[in-house]
Specification:
With about 375 residues, the protein is of the alpha/beta class. It folds into 2 domains: about 5-35 and about 225-365, Riboflavin kinase-like (Elongation Factor Tu (Ef-tu), domain 3), CATH 2.40.30; about 45-200, Rossmann fold (3-Layer(aba) Sandwich), CATH 3.40.50. Helix content is about 35%, strand content about 25%. It has helices at about 5-10, 20-35, 45-50, 75-90, 105-110, 120-130, 145, 150-160, 185-195, 210-220, 225-230, 340-355, 365; strands at about 60-65, 95-100, 135-140, 165-170, 195-200, 205, 210, 235-240, 255-260, 270-280, 280-290, 305-310, 320-330, 360. Strands 8-9-12-11-10-13 form a 6-stranded antiparallel β-barrel. Helix 4 (about 75-90) links the parallel strand 1 (about 60-65) and strand 2. The chain is elongated and about 75 Å long. The chain starts with a helix and ends with a helix.
Length: about 375
């Protein structure tokens, strides 16, 4: 399948609000490249995915250091990284990206942590393939680190392990105990310690800042196309294929029941068109997000994610896959019989087949090339 064919299929996904073929392809391409089961699976260095110690940062070059949680690695983060890259090039410095694992919110609000747009591994992968990043550093985020004054963090965790020339953060960034390390406070520290600080204005889309919270809100309402525009790619989640409920058995197509990694952000309940990415191939799929209740509207089980794959034959049980959400199809519903369920599910499959086809996309050939 060629680029023109893929673009025309993606264009067909939005008849009410068309997306230019190139833009549509770019949104899907971004997700497929970042997905760990896709074409970019081997791009980042292994040290980046494991988390590189700050002690390994080079002292031979001065460093422009971009710091953040970078949940989702969305368009706002990309703007910040682009600003940091330009600064590093202008100064002749290396660009070091510093992030945290786990996401700070999971330590600061452990009772009710916010769902993550990317797993830690996927976030590191997305940062590692960002243009111009010379070094990716992951700091374990612990209660002890959260209680560390920002001056000590900069001097002990950064300054003593790299030749710090410039720090680049979002204008609303804060660091250290009590969030005292604001952009203004960091600038005062930089005047003493010999580094500069750039606070990057939040990127704007549609008159509002691009933030991870805004993306989560859009996903929670099922507005995955709007979320994709802020992410710069379609939203995806990763997980392992497990044995499922069995309600699709006998419908004539394979169904992958995906055990999503804990803490990841699923979109609103409903049925979506998208792709399941496995072993370097993206298969068109009708994706169901919700709670088991096909025949019992008053009884709901644990949240699930299952995808009906088109054109696929084989066994995915136990495999790690990524599920890419491209377009909302319909809200969840209950059914009076198995035959009614089958009729609706086959209708979902037919719609996806018409829009995306039923051939798998070889990501190494169609997306990376």
């Amino acid at each position: 399948m060629g680029e023109k064919d893929l673009s025309s299929r993606l264009l067909a996904l939005s008849p009410e609000r068309p997306i230019a073929p190139g833009a549509a392809r770019a949104l899907v391409r971004g997700a497929l490249l970042a997905a760990p089961s896709g074409a970019a699976g081997g791009v980042p260095p292994r040290s980046a995915l494991r988390g590189t110690s700050l002690r390994s940062a080079s002292r031979d070059l001065r460093s422009v250091c971009a710091i953040g949680a970078f949940d989702g690695v969305h368009e706002g983060h990309r703007a910040l990284l682009a600003r940091a890259r330009a600064e590093a090039e202008a100064r002749g410095d290396e660009l070091v990206v510093v992030t945290f694992s786990p996401d700070p919110s999971r330590v600061l609000t452990p009772v009710d942590p916010q769902p993550q747009l990317l797993s830690c591994e996927d976030r590191l992968r997305a940062l590692a393939i960002a243009p111009g990043v010379d070094r990716l550093v992951t700091i374990p985020f612990t209660p002890e680190l959260a209680a560390l004054p920002y001056e000590r963090f900069v001097r002990e965790e950064l300054g003593s392990r790299m030749a710090l020339d410039c720090v680049v953060v979002g204008e609303d960034f804060c660091l250290g105990a009590g969030g005292a390390g604001t952009v203004g406070a960091l600038r005062e520290l930089g005047r003493v310690d010999g580094f500069s600080v750039i606070g990057v204005a939040l990127a704007d889309a549609g008159g509002a800042p691009v933030t991870a919270t805004r993306v989560r809100d859009l996903l929670g309402s099922g507005s995955i196309e709007d979320a994709a525009e802020l992410l710069g790619r379609c939203h995806f989640v990763s997980g392992r294929v497990v044995h499922g409920r069995g309600e699709g058995t006998g419908f004539g197509f394979p169904t992958a029941n995906v055990e999503v990694r804990e803490g990841l952000c699923l979109p609103a309940e409903g049925v979506y068109a998208g792709y399941v990415v496995a072993s370097g191939t993206a298969w068109p799929a009708a994706i169901n997000v919700g709670r088991p209740r096909s025949f019992s509207p008053g009884e709901e089980g644990e949240a699930f994610l299952e995808a009906t794959l088109l054109g696929f034959s084989g066994d995915l049980y136990g495999a790690e896959v990524s599920v890419v959400f491209v377009r909302w199809l319909r809200a969840p519903r209950t059914f009076s019989s198995v035959s009614e369920l089958e009729r609706v599910v086959l209708g979902n499959v037919s719609w996806v087949r018409e829009a995306l086809g039923e051939d798998g996309i070889d990501l190494g050939r169609e997306v990376v090339a």
